[in-house]
Design goal:
The protein is of the alpha/beta class. It folds into two domains: 5-218, Spore Coat Polysaccharide Biosynthesis Protein SpsA, Chain A, CATH 3.90.550.10; 227-281. Helices cover 35% and strands 24% of the residues. It has helices at 20-31, 78-91, 110-120, 176-182, 194-202, 227-244, 251-270, 274-281; strands at 5-11, 41-47, 65-71, 96-100, 104-105, 126-133, 137-140, 142-145, 148-151, 158-161, 165-166, 173-175, 208-218. The strands form two sheets. Strands 1, 2, 3, 4, 5, 6, 7, 10, 12 and 13 form a ten-stranded mixed β-sheet that branches. β1 (5-11), α1 (20-31) and β2 form a beta-alpha-beta unit. α6 packs parallel to α8 (274-281). The radius of gyration is 19 Å and the shape is globular.
Length: 282
């Protein structure tokens, strides 16, 4: 049962072998019972770093570990990177992909848990872990009503109803044929809303998803932005929001629950009307 899963890590301005996701993925593979078999770990690195002087020396493949490194110098976005990686996976005989970012700590049972999940149930094509933020709050999956995420206090493993729920990209385990059937990620949405847009389209093709008995940790405590950085980030948010809105129903609800709330939060946080000026210019 070789080449079942391709693990996709998208990086930006960090060499993949230094990032938390890659290092903890390797550790979890080494902890798995499969290490002494013919099982191999396959990793696809999509490097979106847009620095001319960037040079990422590709580490030699280790025993039982193969890394496929691809550089996209113009930073075409998260959605583009995922789609290219899935194209690679399909052409090279993989059946499933796992989507990862560079900042997530994966537990020691991650590799074994994901491998077992597709052996135990191949009929659920969309599987996700429980993702915690700063150790104490469940970030994903979440209720998703009226284009707004509401965090769960408790999420139990098992098969769940997809409608009315959503989740972030990190840790998603997806059957490749299902991914292609859904249409992949929308490459016009570079970052924000990419996950919710994909899940929204998944509801047209399945009514269920599975929560795995796997817990991931995303720590955003070290991420701080200056006002200038926040404005630039908000500009990108508005770009993706414009694309996300296309074809959606109840745009009034989308405005109040996503657009307006983000504007108010940033304006209060940075005590500035610059965000409002930017919003009115779009």
């Amino acid at each position: 049962m070789s080449k079942e899963i391709l693990y996709i890590i998208v990086t930006y301005k960090e060499k993949y072998y230094h990032c938390s996701s890659y290092k903890s993925l390797i550790d979890s593979f080494k902890c798995s019972k499969f290490l002494n078999s013919n099982e191999k770990l396959y990793v696809f690195v999509a490097d979106n770093t847009d620095l001319n002087e960037w040079d990422c020396e590709v580490a030699e493949n280790l025993d039982h570990i193969s890394v496929y490194y691809h550089r996209f110098k113009n930073n075409p976005g998260l959605s583009f990177a995922y789609n290219k990686a899935v194209d690679f996976a399909k052409k090279n005989g993989f059946s499933w992909v796992v989507l990862l970012d560079q900042d997530t700590m994966l537990p020691s049972n991650f590799y074994e848990g994901y491998s077992q999940s597709i052996r135990q149930n191949e009929t659920i094509f969309l599987k996700v872990p429980v993702v915690f933020i700063n150790f104490n709050a469940i970030l994903s999956p979440s209720k998703y009503i009226g284009y707004r995420a509401y965090l769960y206090k408790i999420v139990e493993p098992g098969i769940k109803k997809l409608k009315g729920n959503s989740f972030i990209n990190t840790g998603m385990l997806i059957n490749i044929d299902f991914y292609i059937k859904v249409g992949g990620y929308n490459e016009q949405i570079k970052l924000d809303f990419a996950d919710h847009d994909f899940v929204y389209r998944c509801t047209r093709f399945t009514t269920q998803y599975e929560v795995l008995n796997i817990r991931l940790l995303q720590d955003f405590s070290s991420f701080t932005n200056s006002k200038e950085q926040a404005i630039n980030r908000y500009r990108l948010y508005l770009r993706d929001l414009k694309t996300f809105k296309k074809g959606k129903t109840n745009k009034c609800m989308l405005f109040f629950n996503s657009d307006f709330l983000r504007l108010v939060k940033l304006s209060i946080q940075y005590k500035s009307f610059d965000f409002l000026k930017l919003r009115l210019s779009k």
